[in-house]
Amino acid sequence: MDTTPTSSAATPPGRREPLRHLTVLSGGMGGAKFLQGLLHGIAAGTLPGVAPDATVTVIANTADDWWIHGLKVCPDLDTVMYTLGDGIDPERGWGRRAETWSAKEELAAYGVEPTWFGLGDRDIATHLVRTQLLDSGYPLSRVTQALCQRWLAPTYGERLTLLPMTDDRVETHVAIADPEAPSGRRAVHFQEYWVRLRAEVPAEQVVFVGLDAATPAPGVLETIATTDLLVLPPSNPVVSVGTILGVPGVRDAVRATTARVVGLSPIVGASHVRGMAEQMLTSIGVEVSAAGVGLNYGARANGGVLDGWLIDERDADQVSRLEAEGLRCAAVPLMMTDHDATAAMAAAAVSLVVDGAGPA
Q: What Å distances lie between residue 148 and 28, 44, 233, CA to CA?
């Protein structure tokens, strides 16, 4: 590897050296869509201060994972992998394109539960390979690397790396009201809350089983320590980004990194754009607003994890409140309508926190 320092002559006066490595803490659909725009912006050269050959490492949430029909399913890892590998169903935002459901129908005909969660015929191949490799003793991080040889390596080579937040088993459970239970409520797996109940039942409590005992997957802490920019995309702040930060050691690593840390609000105009951020925030007592989420993450200057927080222009009246708490803040359009719009969001995030990264 060439260790010769980059010549400062290539950098205009008053500008920083180009950012060569970016790291994103990602959930599923929202994170994957943001990553599409980020990678589009890097390729197009529209991200200020970011090198055209910059690498991106994605640290993905695995607390949504579960076992079904004997198979290990990792929804967020797969959504990121399929989306960036051009295999995602664009209308659903999850699962494989041109999917069929024969296996699901056959299992239902046998009366095998759960019938509300379907594994597509194409998607099931990924889960079979993953489960076989796990059963052979390989950790999830190695298995993910192997799967990405099909989905990411042909297009991105070594410029894009997907890491699970941990190799350990972590599961998110949601407590909901149940008058027939002795305690008056019962816990359901996150997938049941999201898929079967459609998040329409109030979440009384969110429990992350195994999170306290988990350790970061190989490469996670090292990546955070050495990255040039760390981004918290508009993923769910409780059950996506929140669980990644909840892995012991990760939050401390984010606080300690020399890189700037910037986040983008998943709340626009007092509501989530997609998903269930509103329900999850309510369950932990956090104000459902762009400011509420930003302040929940907190400024690194005050013991939190952020240097800057990007909010939608509709929430511009909250900028001063966030800045008063030590966060750089700007209000820009935050709707990921296409790759160019999302790349513009990523560019605004870079400009917000990286001194000298603004327009030349």
A: 16, 23, 21
Rounded to two decimals, what is the model's pTM? 0.93
Each residue's pLDDT tens digit, 77-95:
999 999 999 999 998 888 9
In angstroms, rounded to a whole number, what is the distance separating the alpha carbons of residues 183 and 196? Answer: 22
Contact 176, 184 (CB under 8 A): no
Tally of helices (H runs) and strands (E runs) in the chain: 14, 14
| C-alpha–C-alpha distance, residues 125 and 130, integer Å | 9
Identity of residue 9? A
> What is the per-residue burial (b if ≥16 Cβ within 10 Å, else e) of 161-187?
bbbbbbbbbbbbbbbbeeeeeeeeeeb
What are the structure tokens assigned to 46, written together? 């529209």
The angle, 0 to 180 degrees and rounded to 10, between the axes of the packed helices 140-151 and 75-84 is 20
φ, ψ at 324 (rounded to 5°): -65, -20
234 to 70, 176, 186, 343: CA distances (angstroms): 32, 26, 29, 13
Would you call 342 helix, strand, or coil by DSSP? helix
In the predicted model, residues of the chain with pLDDT beneath 50 are 1-14, 359-360
The dihedrals phi and psi of 276, each to the nearest 5 degrees, come to -140, 35
What is the number of residues in the chain?
Answer: 360
The sign of the dihedral angle between the CA atoms of 137, 23, 342, 148 is negative
Distance separating alpha carbons of residues 54 and 42, to the nearest angstrom: 7
Q: Tens digit of pLDDT for each residue in 1-56?
A: 333 333 333 344 445 689 999 999 999 999 999 999 999 999 999 999 999 999 99
